[in-house]
Design brief:
Largest sheet: 5 strands, mixed
CATH class: Alpha Beta
GO molecular function, one term: alpha-1,2-mannosyltransferase activity
Shape: globular
Radius of gyration: 25 Å
Keywords: Glycosyltransferase, Membrane, Transferase, Transmembrane, Transmembrane helix
CATH topology: Spore Coat Polysaccharide Biosynthesis Protein SpsA, Chain A
GO cellular component, one term: Golgi apparatus
CATH superfamily: Spore Coat Polysaccharide Biosynthesis Protein SpsA, Chain A
Protein name: Glycosyltransferase family 15 protein
Family: Belongs to the glycosyltransferase 15 family.
Mean pLDDT: 85
Number of domains: 1
Helix content: 25-40%
CATH architecture: Alpha-Beta Complex
Strand order of the largest sheet: 3-2-1-4-9
Order of helices and strands: HHEHEHEHHEEHEEHHEEHHHHEEEHH
């Protein structure tokens, strides 16, 4: 009896195994249209972020169940209160914001990013102990993790970027993209032949804020390898942004290489026509265009430094903006940078007063320097930058234009730095 039961059990196991193999074969042989593409995955993620935004944004007045008012009538993405529950106290007086530094880096960047961390910690973060998120399209090695962990006063977190966020979308014609790179290389356009640079620009434009490690934060400060901070930062810029209802900030602005974005503004105009509900009433179009929006003057904020609000990037307005540009393919058919993409989005989707220029955060990223204008400011902040190196008021800078369109008084002494 026991022998018969054992034989029966073996028959059942063999039968189960055969059915499992047949099911696997039939599932694997489904037509390609039933398989989920990278674009399908990204679209699902976009819907997830729109859901996240809906949960963190209060309904506008008059909104009823089943009715979604236009974005222009919705409240702006919220900024958090100054006190955030669950965060440890900072070494400096006052509460901390729900914020993090974020860096995209390779393992080979370790000594360059170590320099940047040391600058940020010495000049600011040793008093606040904010976290630091590191992102890479490959796993971080032990050397990178050990050194960065030893340098950061807050918690360090390490994330590997999803393939869908660092690859060619399925709607891109790779032969066409390759020919573009070859042509740009022949014309010696900076990064014109680089595939990885294009992945980086697309990632920073539309995906860094979707990384799982970024989900818990509301504010970010982007830090690149080999940057310098020349002056002490005696206050919390994250708190300043929240207190003054700012969403985006910069320290350097300049003109983009026209050869890298020949059709970018065409895509922007198409977006503006398709989504007029997303365009802010008191926007900064005059910073971006000399002719009321017909053409792009190539001014942009240099995004290798930016402090911003993540909820704005997660908003339907920004997601629609990025998706519209992404589908046009300019990240690969041209060489659209994340700096003009972020800048145009901020200039059109935010009110003027929601963008801030940090004169007192002194910053260097090769080859440009922002050294605060005003001798007393530099002395008070223990700056070690040469004011003659300040790029703000040079002819190729757009910062003077930013002051003009906002009716702002330029700092005393700016005339001496114009040449």
């Amino acid at each position: 009896m026991a022998s018969g039961s054992g034989r029966y059990l073996r028959y059942l196991l063999v039968t189960f195994f055969i059915f499992a193999v047949l099911y696997f074969i039939s599932s694997s042989s489904k037509p390609r249209e039933h398989l989920q593409t990278a674009s399908d995955i990204i679209r699902e993620q976009n819907e997830k972020w729109r859901g996240y935004y809906d949960q963190t944004t209060a309904p506008s007045a008059g909104a009823t169940e089943g009715h979604h008012p236009k974005a222009s009538s919705q409240p702006a993405p919220p900024t958090s209160p100054n006190t955030v529950a669950g965060l440890p106290n900072a070494a400096a007086d006052g509460p901390r914001m729900n914020a993090t530094f974020v860096t995209l880096a390779r393992n080979s960047d370790i000594w360059e990013i170590a320099r940047s961390i040391r600058q940020v910690e010495d000049r600011f973060n040793h008093r606040y102990n904010y976290d630091w998120v590191f992102l890479n399209d490959m796993p971080f090695d032990d050397t990178f993790i050990n050194i960065t962990t030893s340098l950061v006063s807050g918690k360090t977190k390490y994330g590997e970027i999803e393939k869908e966020h660092w690859s060619f979308p399925d709607f891109i014609d790779q032969d066409k993209a390759k020919k573009v790179r070859e042509d740009m290389a022949a014309r010696k356009i900076i990064y014109g032949d680089s595939v990885s640079y294009r992945h980086m620009c697309r990632f920073e434009s539309g995906f860094f804020f979707r990384q799982p490690l970024m989900n818990e934060y509301e504010w970010y400060w982007r830090v690149e390898p080999s940057i310098e901070l020349f002056c002490d930062v005696h206050y919390d810029p994250f708190k300043y942004m929240a207190d003054h209802k700012k969403k985006y900030s910069f320290v350097l602005s300049l003109y983009e290489y026209a050869e890298t974005v020949p059709t970018l503004w065409d895509s922007v105009k198409k977006f503006m026509k398709t989504h007029p509900e997303h365009i802010a009433q008191d926007n900064s179009l005059a910073f971006l265009s000399d002719d009321g929006g017909d053409s792009y003057n190539h001014c942009h904020f240099w995004s290798n430094f930016e402090i911003g609000n993540l909820n704005w990037l997660r908003s339907p307005a920004y997601l629609d903006f990025f998706e519209s540009l992404d589908r046009d393919g300019g990240f690969f058919y041209e060489r659209w940078g994340d700096a003009p993409v972020h800048s145009i989005a901020a200039g059109l989707l935010l009110q003027k007063e929601e963008i801030h220029f940090f004169n007192d955060i002194a910053y260097y990223h090769v080859p440009f320097t922002h050294c605060p204008t005003g001798e007393q400011t530099r002395l008070d902040l223990k700056c070690h930058c040469n004011p003659k190196d300040n790029f703000d008021w040079k002819g190729y800078s757009c910062t003077s234009r930013w002051f003009d369109i906002n009716g702002l008084k330029k700092p005393d002494g700016y005339e001496a730095e114009m040449d």
